[in-house]
User: Fold this.
Amino acid sequence: MTASISGRRPDCSFSPEVLAVPGIAPLASSSSTVTATYDSPGALTNGRLFRVGDGVSPPKVIFQRDPEFSPRARQAKFQGTMTLMLVVNREGVPTNIHLTTPLGCGLDAKAVQAVGGWRFKPAEKDGQPVAVEIAVEVTFHLY
Assistant:
């Protein structure tokens, strides 16, 4: 079964497991939208945040580990795609991770934990590393 925000299963709703991830705090909540952030010190080492384009190259993943399925999601055969917004800082470290399209069922926390451990070749502007905000889709699929 593939999930969407509007078609969530009641046994796999967005729940407090996201709040169990160190650094996660709810920003807003409604029946259709939940946002949480993971803030890391030093997200913007020079105080400027760039967007890819107009002379700014995108960061490139150099290390990534796929997130694990939560036991609840695996048992329910729950799968889907969620979106995270994050800042890749000048050192290539993902910071300020925001859930923008949560799935629930424990998968949100697993995605934040996994993506927080990724490493990037930083974005560049004029040959210098810069911090950029990017979107990352994480797909959970049972084979």
